[in-house]
Amino acid sequence: MIRWLPLFVFALLAQPAVAQIASRQNAIRPELIAEGPATPGGEVELAILMHTDPGWHGYWLNPGDAGLPMKIEWQLPKGARLGPLRFPVPDKLLVAGIVNYVYERDYALLTRFTVPANARGVVPIRAEAQWLACTDKICVPERGSISLNVPTAMGEATERVRFDEWRRALPRPLASPARFAVRDNKIEIAVPLPASVMVGQPYFFPADDGPIDYAAPQGFRRKGDLLIAELERRRGNPERLSGVLALGDGRGLEIKAIPGQVPKGGQSVGGLGANALFYALFGAMVGGLLLNLMPCVFPILALKALHLAKLGGDESRARRDALAYTAGAIIGTGLLGAALLAIRAGGSAAGWAFQLQDPRTTIVLLLLTTAITLNLLRAFELPVLAGEHNPQGSFGTGALAAFVATPCAGPFLGAALGTALLLPIYGSIAVFAALGLGLAIPFLLIAFIPILRGRLPRPGPWMVRLQRFLAIPMAATAVGCLWLLYRQGGPAALLVGLGVAGALTLLLYLTGLRQRRGQRTGWAAFGVALLLTGVAATQVPRQPQAAARVPLGSEAWSETAVEKYRAAGKPVFVYFTADWCLTCKANEAAAIERQATREAFGKAGIRVFVGDWTNGDPAITRFLEGRGRAGVPLYLWYEPGRAEPEELPQILTPGMLIERALRPR
């Protein structure tokens, strides 16, 4: 009875206000919006956008000590279905000692709408809704009708930008289940969250009314890769707990906890920890160092090492070049990181290497790799790579290395960049800059440690042979760009890429002829190449959405499909890839798509799902973020009977997969 007393008083005080303004326009007005058209039998995302007047608020699915959740009665045509409503992360509002879970701004509730298989033209959706609109002094029950005609047609999502912003406000599903335990008058929830993920002022919003005291203070502590919530128990011993864990900066995690052991001890949480930033910086630096082994980056590093060999004992010159190269790499990765953060702040779901999801950037990378390949074949001299004139050349080389290194998130880098997206902006930029520093470390070591520089072989004819050898992986990168253009824009984009690459090859070949005659052509050739690039970038077409690549014997990834097979007790292997990810392609060729692996999977009944992120599928982006990742590759092994998947290394071997497939079950 005491529990309901505040609500009774609150409602009693609100009644005169209800009578006074019963005839006014609603303070919160719903609008039903579709993300775009949908094919018969297909799905489309719907949003109920709640336009909220200043000073008013609506309620979450669990309103807290007072308030009412929204109620909707849908009127759908036969064969149509709606998924559950998905609510954004709420805010905590304290009024006169009463704790409410509310939205004090415009907010959108999302749901998935399945169009009937026999639908034609438009599909009508109608609903009657009731909700409670309140200020800190009055409450008004409101109602209204919402309606929408969803067109059945093929086409691009016309409202994707707004829907991406609303999806970003949703709590992200936790990849692994949480555990909770009841201890005396406390309920403790252990949430699996990597220690590198920073949290500010966390708060747990329980989805169900009953077990947790809303008004009591909440405590949190970290122990390894667990964030443990300490909540005041109000009554009962729940069998399960669900809710949203807000991390203190607008982000939230969707929690589903089962009974289990919760460890004692740990460090109190309530602010940002320096350890997470340190580990993210270290991971980005090591990951950047390893990126030097990528086929598109290693030739650039080798060319700079050859340039150092030419300098011989000129120590001051070597150090200036190394510092300029480092500055270019750091500023290059820092600017890419800043662009990624700006895109995400605008509401779009984007991850690392986001720029390669746009064919205009792909064609720029194609022309760069074509030019570098021709330079390695000594068809012409590229001063930026040679770095012979001034430090600006080395700076440009560092920035170039940063740009061409982005297609993959290799070992150490995936978790570090995932953490970077959760840090405050200064920490995020620092992590991206650390990636550039990692790229530059080999060059710095050679330049600043005389004994290493002294071990470089002396210049000679072998250098020409090495450059020609290094042209092979760079040419393979250019071919990969052509394949990516085909995937992003179809045959028309491929023809544009081939045409402009051919024109650039002819231009640079003629430039090389003039260079060998001692004639200067640098600025003129650069201007024509820039014009070619601009024309190609504006003319390259893009398909509305390239179909996901699904190899034979695999299925396109979706969380629903994976859960369906897991519920049936089947082992599942999931891999997330992209056509521009070199590590992904290497793993697929060497381990995943081998005959021996397929046979072992078939014998063991392994279901294989492929998440193709080539065009930046927002659903995959959100799943990667939920796993603390900013990019691909990501490999997950779901074993029957285990609640959470095993995350495999980012470098796979056939034996690693075959051994898991043939385990006794």
From TrEMBL:
Gene3D superfamilies: Glutaredoxin. It comes from Sphingomonas cremea. Residues 544-665 form the Thioredoxin domain. InterPro entries: Cyt_c_assmbl_TM_dom, DsbD_gamma, DsbDN, Thioredoxin-like_sf, Thioredoxin_domain. Keywords: Cell membrane, Cytochrome c-type biogenesis, Membrane, Signal, Transmembrane, Transmembrane helix. Its main location: membrane. The keyword Ribonucleoprotein does not apply. One of its GO terms (biological process) is cell redox homeostasis. This is Thioredoxin family protein. The chain crosses the membrane at residues 277-301, 322-343, 363-386, 398-423, 429-449, 469-486, 492-510. It is found in: Cell membrane. It is a multi-pass membrane protein.
